[in-house]
Amino acid sequence: MSAIRVIGREDIQKVFTVTAALRAVESAYAGKSAGTGRVWPMVFHEFDPGHADLDIKSGDLESAGVYGLKVVSWYDSNAEKALPALFGTSLLFDLVTGEPKALLNAGPITALRTGAAAAVGAKYLARKDAKTLTIVGCGELCPYLAAAALATIPSLNTVYLTNPHRPEKAAERLAAVTAATDALLKACGHARTAAINAAADAASAVGESDIVFTATCAKAPVVKSAWVKPGTHVSCIGADLPGKQEVESAVLARAAVYGDDTAQCFAVGECELPHKEGVLPALAGELGEVILGEKAGRTSDAEITVFDSTGIALQDIASAAVILNACEKQGLGTVCEI
Amino acid sequence: MSAIRVIGREDIQKVFTVTAALRAVESAYAGKSAGTGRVWPMVFHEFDPGHADLDIKSGDLESAGVYGLKVVSWYDSNAEKALPALFGTSLLFDLVTGEPKALLNAGPITALRTGAAAAVGAKYLARKDAKTLTIVGCGELCPYLAAAALATIPSLNTVYLTNPHRPEKAAERLAAVTAATDALLKACGHARTAAINAAADAASAVGESDIVFTATCAKAPVVKSAWVKPGTHVSCIGADLPGKQEVESAVLARAAVYGDDTAQCFAVGECELPHKEGVLPALAGELGEVILGEKAGRTSDAEITVFDSTGIALQDIASAAVILNACEKQGLGTVCEI
């Protein structure tokens, strides 16, 4: 007889903060590059191509003492049934015995770990005196990106929100994004000092920025190479399917480009098209190698750096392990005999 | 907010009977052959080759309205910790919306669905007047094999237990296997009429039998071709890893051989070595095709038939769906908000 802890959305939101996500994501990248975390082959199935699909991502992470998997399904017809299009469910197991440990709603984990990914990229690859961040894309992820960056990079004093396709949307979303960012920061004991502003002109916001995060649904590049000044760091979050690209290939051709998983970056990430076009024959390395000190990362103040975050199972597994530990300590979740 | 039903060993044992397993397994095979059930690529990882590994088997089954997965880990060092070597956990999702539905302990499902597999093979491929069954191998699975056969094939009047390597073991195990078989039959409303006997001589028991089930840990063949009379049906359960073989290749060379999944039978099943040796170039078909009436199955009373059961994800998924339905109706399991 084993016991498994079932951890729902509300309990996850109580214990999983921006700073917890930053630590989890950093440990995931480090584990992958140290060879103490492994990503196993992904299972992908299309129930109805373009309308419903599913993936199962799995792996193990020695530093967290667990292995696990995340199942994510997407059904576009769920909206008609007043159901979310996406369902995410994670299972976590003891790496020493194989015993099941926890079942978690992966939904509230994903936004925090994705925001943290962009920020960890900036922490290791941006200039140390970075003052200005532009977030390209004003969607649901925006506060998670802003809060993770502000919690990680204390030198930031300005955040611009911008939306290249619908410039007016940045101003519309400003109040909501600011409030959500402040709530996320407050939950981990931070108070925001940087200003958050809407920028109608994406070109000038990017041009002013030391750090750029891209998190759009764009299929064609929205960030032009001419906008990006020397010394900028760009963390790319949005490209997660073949053919998607948010940043002109010329930016990556000018940059030292790091990824979370080289094969996945070339298959489905921001690097896919520049690689196929021949302007990005290889990555400078994986971010985990920079975290471990095995790769230099940024080598000059004038260098442009890029982090291509495609999302790896270890981010979810490390995050789930942090949540499980916190829920065990606080007696949260429902423990069920199985 | 979704709700997931967590179903543990005790509740599974209340609702999952031999007859429920037989129906589930038959629907799984039929669904696979009809193309309304799909098996997705297996994830396999060795933590410590020969000492600890894991697999994730997944797929969908339209007739049950679900998709799902089963994670099975094996750690041989668990015995030192007074823990089971194997842990099995299943997750079930709604095929129409993707919503998570149930988490189940897969352990108590596996024995029933494996016993049912052998019996469904015999139901479709043995002679209709089969009187005698020999079970080769006296392990944990033995009562599940006996009960499933007796529940499916009412003409049986004799069951022999036999153990080629340690002939005395059959007599040692007889009382326990008989009691367990009767309990399994009683749970689904059957009363046993057939005799269950221990057979010290495997050769003569197999030679007398119309149906043979093999469920041993043997790596080299224990059932000789010379023992097997014309008209016999053999369901092979034990071979589940490359290099394992329970029945001499010459038996399969003489037989109409069906499998649960052709590719898996040739990769890891009883068919692997005969296929590699060239004596079994192709299967007669998959059992699902016989169930659907697309393949003839047995074509004469003198024909030897073989069913190679390697175990497919759909057996577990169909079984889990049957269990979930029963638990929903009876209010069993723990419903957790996630």
Structure commentary:
Helices cover 36% and strands 26% of the residues of chain A. Chain A is built from 11 helices and 16 strands. The first copy, chain A, has helices at 9-15, 18-34, 107-125, 142-152, 168-187, 202-208, 249-254, 262-268, 272-277, 287-291, 313-330, and strands at 3-7, 37-39, 43-48, 52-61, 66-75, 86-94, 100-105, 132-136, 158-162, 195-198, 211-214, 233-236, 255-259, 285-286, 304-308, 334-337. In chain A, a hairpin with a 3-residue loop joins strand 3 (43-48) and strand 4 (52-61). In chain A, helix 2 crosses helix 11 (313-330) and helix 3 crosses helix 11. The radius of gyration of chain A is 19 Å and the shape is globular. The mean pLDDT of chain A is 96. At the A-B interface, strand 1, strand 3, strand 4, strand 5 and strand 6 of A face strand 1, strand 3, strand 4, strand 5 and strand 6 of B.
Parts with pLDDT < 50 across at least 5 consecutive residues of chain A: none
Number of strands of chain A: 16
- For this entry, what is the oligomeric state of its chains? homodimer
The biggest sheet of chain A amounts to:
8 strands, mixed
Number of domains of chain A: 2
Query: How would you spell out the order of helices and strands of chain A?
Result: EHHEEEEEEHEHEHEHEEHEHHEHEHE
Calculate Rg of chain A over CA atoms: 19 Å
- SSE-based structural type of chain A: alpha/beta
